[in-house]
Amino acid sequence: MKEFQCPSCRQPVSFEHVACANCGILLVFDAPRIDMRRLASNQACRNREIIGCNWCVEGADWYCGSCRLTRTIPHLGSARNIMLWRRVEEAKRRLLYDLSRLGLPLKSRSGEQVGFDILSDQISPILTGHLSGVITLNLAEADDVEREARRVAFREPYRTLLGHFRHEIGHFYWDLLVNSTSFQAPFKLIFGDDSQDYQGAINSYYNRSDRSYDRSGFISEYATSHPWEDWAETFAHFLHIVSTLDSLAGLPLSLDERARQTLTDPYLESDFEALLALWMPLSRGINELNRSLGMSDAYPFDISPAVKGKLHLVHMAISAFREQQRLAA
Known about the structure:
Layout: E1 4-5, E2 12-13, E3 27-30, E4 35-38, H1 48-51, E5 70-72, H2 79-102, E6 115-119, E7 129-131, E8 134-138, H3 144-153, H4 161-177, H5 184-191, H6 198-206, H7 227-248, H8 257-262, H9 272-292, H10 305-328
Parallel strand pairs: 5-6, 6-8
Antiparallel strand pairs: 1-2, 3-4, 7-8
Helix pairs in contact: 2-4, 4-7, 5-10, 7-9, 7-10
Domain Zinc-ribbon: 4-76
Protein name: Zinc-ribbon domain-containing protein
InterPro entries: UCP012641 (IPR031321), Zinc-ribbon_6_bact (IPR011201)
């Protein structure tokens, strides 16, 4: 994510800050303008006090654009649930930032609005997933201990809240960017035949005794379960890449002219090869930094030629959609 500055003292502030650590003024994030502003009267989201939402409201709304998308919140009878819900909403706001920078809408062709149900499984099991634009997320995924236990149980190298959101929204954008478009045939060629029974494929995946898979063809094991899941995993990784490169732009590094041009706005970069040329050494570098601190790799994945082709298709589909919107405006 790009670096923001306090509108008063110009010191760096993070995307989540509600106040400047240097001068103390209260801050709000202006989502339409993608900038930090000084908090004015009647701008605070109603969730600012309870979960630290720092997005400003629009007009006479009580809730910001992000909080209005949450259809269902967990039961707030415990401090733990409030703490976990706060983490979930922080990750969701980063997702919405990604989508805004990419120029992707939050409505389907038929007008279905993206929505979020944040549910606790204290009473009955909750499965994180997507259906017709609604993303359901199990609140337990915001608990570091529980999420790590699930990561190990499912033999996943990576499992985060933001990763969940980026994966699940990928299903929504498959329908918008690929289904019934000129990209449907290339999708079948590269990702596989999506007409195969989805639920049967998922059940078969979880019943496998052999957990090995073709690492040269898929970005993750779960991507092998069905072409739709392969797309969602790949879409999430595309967001990982452009978001991290956006953060790179604010670091005091010596870069050549082409790299600086790419980092002007990685989300809108038209040259896919330029994105990958920056990402490959960066991902190796952040992994080495993590190892130096005794931590696991931040990006424990290899981008093979086949995976690169899948990422390229995601990039092309997003770029084509954005161009169609520009021409229709």
